[in-house]
Each structure stands twice: as C-alpha cells, then as structure tokens.
Amino acid sequence: MERDASYWISVLQLAKHVEGGWYKETYRSPATIRAGESTLSLSSPRSISTSIYFLLQKGEFSAFHRIRSDEQWHFYAGDPLTIYEILPDGLLKEHRLGKDPSKGFVFQTTITAGNWFGSRVTEGGSYSMVGCTVAPGFDFVDFEMAERDDLIKQFPTHRSLISTLTSR
Length: 168
Known about the structure:
Layout: H1 5-11, E1 15-16, E2 22-28, E3 32-33, E4 46-47, E5 50-57, E6 61-66, E7 70-78, E8 81-86, E9 92-97, E10 108-111, E11 116-121, E12 127-135, E13 144-145, H2 148-154, H3 159-164
Antiparallel strand pairs: 1-2, 2-5, 3-4, 5-12, 6-11, 6-13, 7-10, 7-12, 8-9, 8-11
C-alpha cells in the first residue's frame, strides 16, 4: 500500500516547521555538552544529539538556513529530496536523498555545521519523508534563517536558487 504525505502527517503527528514543511522531534539525548566543550561556539549547554522526522510536499521547500552543528539527513519514504548546500567559498553541493542508488541517490548525507542549506522534493515527486539528526543537538538559538537579499549579495552566482528557496 503506497502512503501519501497526508498519511505521514497524520500518523506521525507532524507539525508545520518555521523553515517550511512538517516535522516532529523524536529524540533528544538527556546527555549534554556544555558551552566551551566544543569548537562550535555554543552559548549554552546542548543535548549531545537530537532527531526529527521531516516531510516536504511538492511545492513546499525548506528555506535556506544554517545551524551551528552538523546535520545528518536520512531518507525514509516517498520521492527523492534534493538538499542544496552552499559552502563558504560559494561552491554549491547538491545532495540527492532517495531509495535508488543506481540513479545517484543516497540514503543519508551530512550538511556541515555553519553552511547554508535548503531543500525541496526532486522534480516530478509528490513528497519526501526524511529524518534529520543533529549533533550537538538542535536548539533554535543556533538556527538562522537566510535573508534573501543578504544571501544573494554573498553568493550572487546562486541568485535564482536562493530566490526560489527563501521566503523573505
């Protein structure tokens, strides 16, 4: 039986995410790392690791944003997802999550701490059901949503993509 996005949103009790799409936190480690115990310039203690379910539907996108920790993405169901990562030197990396390695898709990929990234369902798909694991754990204090004009000034060669994957 093929599941659709509304099935996963309902069954997993996903909520709207500020960056776009749908999510639910599934794990937050009780173990913590203190500020100063990491090279990531954390301002306060963080869980060692956190995980969420994350779903995007056709026409939705995860807006360009960045966090202070590495984020590993895992593919679960639906159609392939493309994650766009802009490295500090301006190089654009496209990570393609999906279930068919023969078509260049991978089951998991990692976005480097501090890099700008956004995502959307790959052309022709209807939804992507994935998971994200962040270490040290996610905290909204470490979350920065991109401002379209500022990001375009920083990376003008990616103007079209940035315009598509930002909401402000």
